[in-house]
Amino acid sequence: MKIERVLSRQRSQRIALGLLLLATAAVTIPVLVILLQIVVRGAGAIDWGFLTQNPSQAGKAGGIFPALVGTFYLMVGTIIFALPIGVSAGIYLAEYAPKNWLTRAINMAIMSLAGVPSIVYGLFGLAVFVLALDFGMSLLAASLTLACQALAMTITTSREAIIAVPREYREGSLAIGVTKWQTIRHVVLPQARPGIITGAVLAMSRAAGETAPILVVGAAFFLPGLPSSPFDQFMALPYHLYTVAAHVPGMPKGTVWGVALVLLAVVLFFNVLATIIRLRTRQRR
Amino acid sequence: MCRWDRRKRRRNRAILTKRSVSPGAAEGLDNGLRRRWRWGEKVVEGWVFLAGLLAIAVLLGIIVLLAKEGLPIFSHTPPWEFLWGTKWYPVSDPPTFGIMPFFVATIMVTLVATAIAVPVGVGCAAYLAEVASPRVRETVKPIVELLAGIPSVVMGLIGLMLLSPLIQSMFDLNTGLCGLTAAIMLAMMSLPVIVSVSEDALRAVPEEFKEASYALGATKWETIRHVCIPAAVSGIAAAVMLGVGRAIGETMTVLMVAGGALAVPHSPTDSMMPMTAAIASGIGNAVRGGLQYQALFAIGLTLFIMTLAINLIADWVLERQKRKYAR
To answer: Phi and psi for A56 in degrees, rounded to 5?
Structure first.
C-alpha cells in the first residue's frame, strides 16, 4: 500500500516535471523556428544590390538602401536625445535625489512610462512634435518621439549602473577633498560606463525595430533620395517591412522575407552587442 | 529641495571649510577655486534635477495631450455612447463613433493570449528556477531574451505568412487573419516578461522553505507546487499583469494579423480590430482637429488609462513581494 503511494507520487512527479519541460520547449522551439524560417526564406533575396540600391516599383524591385540609412539616422537621432537626459536623470536619482515624495514620483513616472503602449507615444509625438512644434513629418519629430519612448529605459539602466558602483570608490574620492560632482565625473561614471552603454545599445536596438510610433508620426513608404536634413521625411526598415508585407499586392515573398531578415539582423546585432558588453564587464569584476 | 538636504549640504560645507589646508600662499588660490567649484556644483545639480523632472513632464505631457486632443469628441458623442456604441463610421454623414468593437476585440485577444502565455510562461519559469541544470538555464535564457528582441512587425509578418494559413486550415475558416492568430502571436510576445519576472519571483523564495519541504519527504514537484509557487504567487501575478499590459498595448502584430473587421467580434476566430490597430489604421486619414482625430486620441486615452492602471498595480504587487522576503 505504502509502496504503491510512493510509486504514484513519483509517477505524478515525473509527469509534472515532464510538463514543465514541455512548457520550456514551447517557449524556446518557436523562437528557433522563427529565426530559422526568416534566415532560410530571406537569405535568397539579399545581395549587394538589395542593400545599396533605391527601391523601385513600390518595393517590388530594387533595394532597401534608403530604408536602411533612415533606420540608422533614427537610431542615432534617438540616442542623441535620450542618452544625455537619461544619464543625467540617472545621476540625479542615484546620487542626489533625497528620499522624498518627489523622488518617489519621478521613479513612479519612469515605471509608468515604460508601460505606455508604443502607439500612444506615436499620438504624443504627432500632437507635440509634428503639429504643435511644427517639425512636420520629419526625421527630427520621429527621433524625438522614439527618444521619449527610450527615456524610461536609459534612465533605469543608468541609475542601476551608477548605484552598482561600490561606495568605497566615492568615499575614497571624497576623502581626498574632491567635490561631489568631480567624484561622479571622474570616479563613478567611468565605473558605470559599461552598464550605461549596455542600456544605450539596447535602446538603439529597440528604436530600430519600433514601427507603430513612426507609422503615426509619418515615415514615408517611398522616397527618391536620402533625407538631407533633420526636417526631411525619411524611410525606415520596420515601416518598409510593414508596407511591403501588408499593403503591396503581388509582392514577391522572397523580398518581404529579405527585408525582415535585414531588420532582424540590425536589431539582433545590437542586442547581442549589449549582451557581450555586459558579459565582458561581469567577467572583469 | 527639502530641508533635510539643505542641512546636509550645510554640514558638508562646514567640513570643507574646517579642513586644514596648507597655510599662506595656497590659501587665496584655494578660496577662488572653491568658489568656482561650488558654483559648478550648483549648476550640475540643477541640471540633473531638471533631467529627472523631465520623466514626470513627459508622463504629464502624454496625459494632458491625450486629454486635450481627445476629450473634445465627447461634445459630439457623449462618453456613454462613445464607450458602448457598436458603430464606428468616422466618414459617413453624420459620423458615429462607438468603440465597443475595438474594446471587445482588445479584451478578447488579450484574454486568449494570457490564457496561452500564463501556463506556458510560468511552467517554463518554474523549470528554469527549480529543475533545470545551470547549463540548460544558460542556454534557454538567451533564447528567451532573443524572443524579447524580435521587433513586433517581424512577429506580425510571421503571423501573417506562417501562422494564419495554419489556423485557417485547422479551424476551417474563410481567413486565417483573426483574433486567435493575433492572440497566439501576442502570447509569444508576452512570454519573455512573464518568464523572467516569474523566475525572479521563484528564485527569491528562501532556500529554507524548500529544505523544510524536502525534509518532510516531499518530492521536487510537490515542493514546487505547494511551497515555491504559493510563496512566489504575488510576483507571478505581477508577471502576468505585465504580460497583459504588453499584450493590450501591442500594435503592429494585431494590425497585421487580427483581420481588421469593424463589427463587434463574437468569437476569437472572428476577424477583429483591437484598439491599438484602430488608432494605427485610422490616424493616417484623420484631419488634424477633426472628429475622427479627436476620437482616435480618445481611444488612445482609454488605452493609456488601462495600461497605466495595470502597470501601477503590478508595480505595487512587486514592491510588496520584494519586502516580504527581504532580509
So the answer is: -140, 165
Q: What average pLDDT does chain A have?
A: 86
Helices (H), B132-258: 134-149, 152-158, 164-171, 179-203, 207-215, 220-223, 229-231, 233-249, 252-257
Average pLDDT over residues B263-267: 87
* A224: pLDDT strictly greater than 90: no
| Interface list for B 257-276 with A (CB within 8 A) | 276
Q: Give yes or no for residue B43 having a pLDDT over 80.
A: yes
A169-188 burial, b at 16+ Cβ within 10 Å, e below that, comes to ebeebbeeebbbbbbbeebb
pLDDT band (50, 70, 90) for residue B12 = low
Q: Which of B63, B147, B150, B248 should be substituted to probe chain A, the one whose Cβ sees the most A Cβ atoms within 10 Å? A: B150
Contact A127 B65 (CB under 8 A): yes
Inter-chain CB proximity A27 and B147 less than 8 Å = yes
Partner residue opposite B47 with nearest CB, options A35, A88, A267? A88
Is B37 at the interface with chain A, CB within 8 A? yes
Work out the mean pLDDT of chain B and round it to a whole number: 85
For residue A210, which of B151, B103, B200, B161 has the smallest C-alpha distance? B151
Q: Span B194-198, mean pLDDT?
A: 93
Q: Answer yes or no: are the C-beta atoms of A205 and A270 closer than 8 Å.
A: yes
User: What is the pTM for the complete model shown?
Assistant: 0.85
Residue whose C-alpha is closest to residue B315's, from B236, B238, B201, B205:
B238
Question: What is the reported pLDDT for B26?
Answer: 43
CA B110 to chain centre: 13
Question: Are residues B194 and B121 in contact, defined by beta-carbon separation less than 8 angstroms?
Answer: yes
| Residue of B242, B307, B241, B293 whose CA lies nearest to B63 | B307
Please, are residues A259 and A64 in contact by the beta-carbon 8 Å criterion? Answer: yes
How many residues would you count in chain B? 327
Residues forming a β-bridge with A62: A55
Helix (H, G, I), strand (E, B) or coil at B89: strand
pLDDT band at B74 (very low <50, low <70, confident <90, very high): confident
| Residue A271, pLDDT score | 87
